[in-house]
Amino acid sequence: MLDIATPAPDFTLPDANGDDVTLSALQGGPVVLYFYPRDDTPGCTKESIAFSEHLDAFEAAGAKVYGISKDSVASHAKFATKRELTVPLLSDENGTVCEDYGVWKEKNMYGKKYMGIERTTYLIDANGHIAMVWPKVKVPNHAEAVLAAVQAL
């Protein structure tokens, strides 16, 4: 996990259309990065739909919102189309950004240990520093809580 007030690690990742998004190019306004485990799974779908439903309010507050997982560009495109998502999804297939942000963790399900993305959201301020972190996110009302934090910046 990254600490509040530290610089957010820069990255360039492709979105669902294959276009590159570079974090440092987004400075000047807040950026929300929500890391999620997998496309088209129940919790990830609910989270992505919630951020999509609030995207206009985030944009009105001057913020950009991106979902990030290790799924491929093609998987993101299919997920976004199927679920009518408007929030851009970024593909971190090699996991470098997930590791840089400390969300690639050992998980435990039914006694079986495996590596995966821990659902985490970062709010990055206009200067490129971590403003808030939500670790181990529970999906209900999360997008609303992040929106409130963006509006309070």
From TrEMBL:
Keyword Disulfide bond recorded: yes
Domain Thioredoxin, residue spans: 2-153
Record-linked Gene3D superfamilies: Glutaredoxin
Keywords: Antioxidant, Disulfide bond, Oxidoreductase, Peroxidase, Redox-active center
Catalytic activities: a hydroperoxide + [thioredoxin]-dithiol = an alcohol + [thioredoxin]-disulfide + H2O
CDD domains attached to this UniProt entry: PRX_BCP
Entry EC number(s): 1.11.1.24
Pfam families for the chain: AhpC-TSA (PF00578)
Recorded GO MF terms: thioredoxin-dependent peroxiredoxin activity
Superkingdom of this protein's organism: Bacteria
InterPro entries in the cross-refs: AhpC/TSA, Peroxiredoxin_AhpC-typ, Peroxiredoxin_BCP/PrxQ, Thioredoxin-like_sf, Thioredoxin_domain
Quaternary structure and interacting proteins, as annotated: Monomer.
UniProt cross-references to PANTHER family, sorted A to Z: AHPC_TSA FAMILY PROTEIN, THIOREDOXIN-DEPENDENT PEROXIDE REDUCTASE
Cited function: Thiol-specific peroxidase that catalyzes the reduction of hydrogen peroxide and organic hydroperoxides to water and alcohols, respectively. Plays a role in cell protection against oxidative stress by detoxifying peroxides and as sensor of hydrogen peroxide-mediated signaling events.
Family under the similarity heading: Belongs to the peroxiredoxin family. BCP/PrxQ subfamily.
Protein name from the UniProt record: thioredoxin-dependent peroxiredoxin
Gene encoding the protein: bcp
